[in-house]
Write a structure and sequence with these properties.
- The protein is α+β, with helices and mostly antiparallel strands and 142 residues long.
- The protein has 3 helices and 6 strands; from the N terminus they run αβαββαβββ.
- It has a 4-stranded antiparallel beta sheet, with helices on one face.
- The protein is globular, with a radius of gyration of 32 Å.
- The structure holds one DNA strand of 10 nucleotides.
DNA sequence: GTTGAGCGTT
């Protein structure tokens, strides 16, 4: 009886020791950072300004603001008009005081029919006064 | 009197 116990102790002791070390050595990586393969969208494109297309020709900035003012503070509404004819080009921009209001208005109004026309809303891009417009600056000649 | 995807001026 004592012999098998002794044998098991003699053989298990190093084994348990080894296992304990190897486990503790292999244990740490439960934190495997899963590499997000679409590395692009950490944040959904969001800014206070919305690009609103699909506007009826008869939609003016006043009615457009009235349609969006219930989602937040509208800081700017602009509809692009044709230089010559003076009529609406069918799209414009609506800017809110913050990104949340803009996203809320977009989710609520995108696809909604206004004056018989389905609205196409997305976040504005490009020309933003004071925005991140990168202008390559050439060295000034002297 | 028209048209219908799109990203703009001061």
């Amino acid at each position: 009886m004592a012999l098998p116990e002794l044998l098991s102790r003699l053989r298990l002791a190093p084994l348990r020791h080894h296992l304990g070390r190897s486990l503790s050595a292999v244990a740490p990586p439960p934190d495997e950072p899963p590499p997000p393969y679409p590395p692009a969208p950490p944040q959904p494109p969001s800014n206070p300004k919305l690009f609103v297309a699909g506007l009826s020709w008869s939609t003016d900035e006043r009615s457009l603001m009235d349609a969006f003012s219930s989602f937040g503070t509208v800081t700017e509404v602009r509809i692009m008009y044709d230089k010559n004819s003076g009529r609406s080009r069918g799209f414009g921009f609506v800017q809110f005081s913050n990104d949340y209001e803009a996203k809320c208005a977009k989710d609520a109004m995108d696809g909604k029919v206004m004056l018989g026309r389905p609205l196409r809303i997305s976040f504005a891009l490009g020309k933003v006064r004071g925005g991140p417009v990168i202008v390559p600056r050439l060295p000034t000649l002297k």
